[in-house]
Amino acid sequence: MFSNLDGVTIDPLLTLFHRAADGRFPPADGRVTVLPSLPGGLECSVAFTGHAVISTALPEEEVLTQRPDGYGGSLAPDFLRFLAGPAGRIGTLDAVLVARGTSNAADAARQLPVRLDAEDHQRVRHARDLRTDVRVHGDARGLVTLANGLAGRRELSIELADPANASRGRGRSLLRDALALVPAGEPVFAAVSPGNARSLRAFLAAGFTPLGSEVILRPQRPSSP
C-alpha cells in the first residue's frame, strides 16, 4: 500500500488497473510482479498481456520458486492451488473489462432506480461476499450492482430478469444505463466469465474493453508453529 498527496491509501494493484484502463500496461516481458495481499483476506492472480501480477501474503521468494510466468503460468491450476493452500477457495477465471462512466446532470432524473427488494438475490449476495459499499439498482430488465471491488476498483455487474430475452438487446441497454450511474470519465470494471459468451458480447457491445484476466482466491493455509 502507499498514499497519494492527499494521504489517501491506494492499493498498488488499483494503480495498475487504472493505468491499464488508460492503455498503459505492464511490460510484456513474461515476468511476474508480486504485491501484498488484499483487504478482507483475499488474494488474486491477474494476467495482462505477457505480464502477471499476484497479490498474496506469501513471501515473494516463495511465490517465485513455483516458477509462474506472464504467459499464462500464473493462472495454471497447480499454481493457483499453491496460492490458495490445501483448503483455500479458488474463484472462477474471469475476463477483466473496463468502460467509463457517463453520468451528467441531465441524466440524474432518468437514472436507474435503487432496488431495496433484492438483498436476497444471488447476484447481490455474491457482490457482498467479495465487495464493499454495494449499491443495487435496476428495473424490469434486471439488476445492477455497483461496488468497490478488487483492490478498491469500481465494479459493475448485472443480472437480467429474463435471460432468454438477452438477444433483444436488454443486456447492453441495461449496461449503458448502469454506466450513467457513474461520474463521466471514471473507470468502471467488470469481471465476466469467458464461457458466458452472451454476457461477454453484451459488455463488449456496451463499450467495455478487455484488459486481461484474473482469479480471486480466499486462501486457507496451515498456521505457522
Automatic annotation (TrEMBL):
Taxonomic source organism: Actinacidiphila guanduensis
Top-level taxon in the UniProt lineage: Bacteria
Gene3D superfamilies: 3.40.630.30
Protein name, UniProt field: Uncharacterized protein
